[in-house]
Amino acid sequence: MSLPRFNDLQVGFELPPLVLPAVNRTTLALYAGASGDHNQVHIDLDFARKARQPDVFAHGMLSVAYLGRLLTAWVPQTSVRSLSVRFTGITQLGHIPTCSGRVIEKFEADGETRVRLAIRCGNQYGDEKLIGEAVVAIA
């Protein structure tokens, strides 16, 4: 991994996007097992339909994990200082999660140079599913 340098970054810089495989039932089952989140609306079609959903859908925290992958593909995990998100949509089966990030501020705090990023997870149609911000330390 070639680490970004604070002096080389400008506000507006865009992180390399992260495009993932389409969400399918196996994705949901594997995430449920890994996270311990076995909420039936994500894994049981009958339950999802009783909840007035057309089918099961992805865990919101799966999209947060994808945003974590976006960040840690760019900087080491130890550089992440904060991550905050807001859920704005449901990721359905067949959606292709696409994560992006853009530098919106450069600053110093606690003796470190840092950047604030606007982060987003959407689908192949451009529909937003999750938005947020992250702060990372950059040397």
Overall form: elongated
Q: Let me know the CATH homologous superfamily.
A: Hotdog Thioesterase
Number of strands: 5
Our count of helices gives 3
Oligomer category = single chain
Instruction: Just name the CATH architecture.
Output: Roll
Report the top-level CATH class.
Answer: Alpha Beta
Pairing-aware structural class of the strands and helices?
A: alpha+beta
Q: Which bin fits the share of residues in helices?
A: 10-25%
- Portion of residues in beta strands equals 25-35%
**Strand order of the biggest β-sheet:** 1-3-4-5-2
Mean pLDDT: 97
The N- to C-terminal Cα distance equals 14 Å
> pLDDT below 50 for ≥5 consecutive residues: which ranges?
none
Number of domains: 1
Helix/strand order: EHHHEEEE
- Major β-sheet annotation: 5 strands, antiparallel
The CATH topology name reads Thiol Ester Dehydrase, Chain A
Keywords:
139 residues, alpha+beta, Thiol Ester Dehydrase, Chain A, 5-stranded antiparallel β-sheet, 22% helix, Putative beta-hydroxyacyl-[acyl-carrier-protein] dehydratase subunit, HotDog_dom_sf
Structure description:
With 139 residues, the chain is an alpha+beta fold. The protein has a single domain, classed as Hotdog Thioesterase (Thiol Ester Dehydrase, Chain A, Roll), CATH 3.10.129.10. It is 22% helix and 31% strand. It is built from 3 helices and 5 strands. A 5-stranded antiparallel sheet has the order 1-3-4-5-2, covered by helices on one side. Strand 4 (112-122) and strand 5 form a beta hairpin. The radius of gyration is 17 Å and the shape is elongated.
